[in-house]
Design a protein that fits this description.
- Helix content is 79%, strand content 0%.
- It is mostly helical and 208 residues long.
- The protein has two domains: 108 residues, Tetratricopeptide repeat domain (Serine Threonine Protein Phosphatase 5, Tetratricopeptide repeat), CATH 1.25.40.10; 64 residues, Tetratricopeptide repeat domain (Serine Threonine Protein Phosphatase 5, Tetratricopeptide repeat), CATH 1.25.40.
- The longest helix is centred in the first third of the chain and has 33 residues.
- 40% of the residues are buried.
- The N terminus is likely disordered.
Length: 208
């Protein structure tokens, strides 16, 4: 009985070391990726996957490298694997959505952004990109709603005001669209004032 317990204990220790080693390589790969040292980052992430083929984060960061070099299908494959290993990885849904956006698969991108938001209701970037995808599909009111959600989370998000302003103008709500552009300008986006001159100050427009 004692021998069995020793064997089980050794097995558990081995698994723990196994997982930690993969984690360490992944962390190193992430740090190198942030420094734009892509080759060394890739080598570390490949090693992590070799040591632990179920370590989702390694696939995610490797996907980020592939996306950086516009290997869209390779990136998507790694994001798919990351999500198979960890279906609750919101950042992998977001990243896969970004790849689908580049491939002009807007409905697919919206689905991934929605999954990311379901896992993290304050995922501002996912709301923003989902709004962009909806804009491409001319679903203006839905896109406006995503911008409004961002502003509810962060009242100083200049990008959300700017995009909502454009969307409202496209949707026919000139006054509120121009007010949103004004707010974006107030928060520091100076190009908003160029749009105000172009879109909001035309003669004959409704002044109400």
């Amino acid at each position: 009985m004692r021998k069995v317990l020793v064997v089980v204990g050794l097995f558990c220790v081995t698994l723990t070391g196994f997982s930690q080693t993969a984690k360490e390589h992944t962390q190193k790969g992430r740090e190198l990726l942030e420094k734009e040292e892509y080759v060394e980052s890739l080598l570390n992430l490949n090693k992590a996957i070799e040591l632990d083929p179920n370590y989702a984060s390694a696939y995610y960061f490797r996907g980020n490298i592939k996306a950086q070099f516009d290997d869209r299908h390779g990136a998507m494959k790694d994001y798919n694997t990351a999500l198979e290993k960890n279906p609750k990885m919101s950042e992998a849904f977001f990243a896969r959505g970004n790849v689908k956006m580049k491939l002009q698969d807007y409905y697919g991108a919206i689905d991934d952004y929605t999954a990311a938001i379901a896992l993290n209701e304050n995922f501002v970037e996912a709301y923003y990109n989902r709004g962009k995808a909806k804009q491409y599909l001319q679903a203006y009111q839905d896109a406006i709603n995503d911008c409004s959600k961002i502003i509810a989370i962060n009242k100083k998000n200049v990008d959300a005001y700017y995009m909502r302003g454009l969307l409202r103008i496209e949707f026919g709500d000139l006054k509120n669209g121009c007010l949103d552009l004004s707010k974006a300008g107030e928060l520091g986006d100076l190009k908003a004032y160029e749009l105000i001159k172009e879109k909001c100050n035309q003669k004959g427009q409704d002044k109400d």
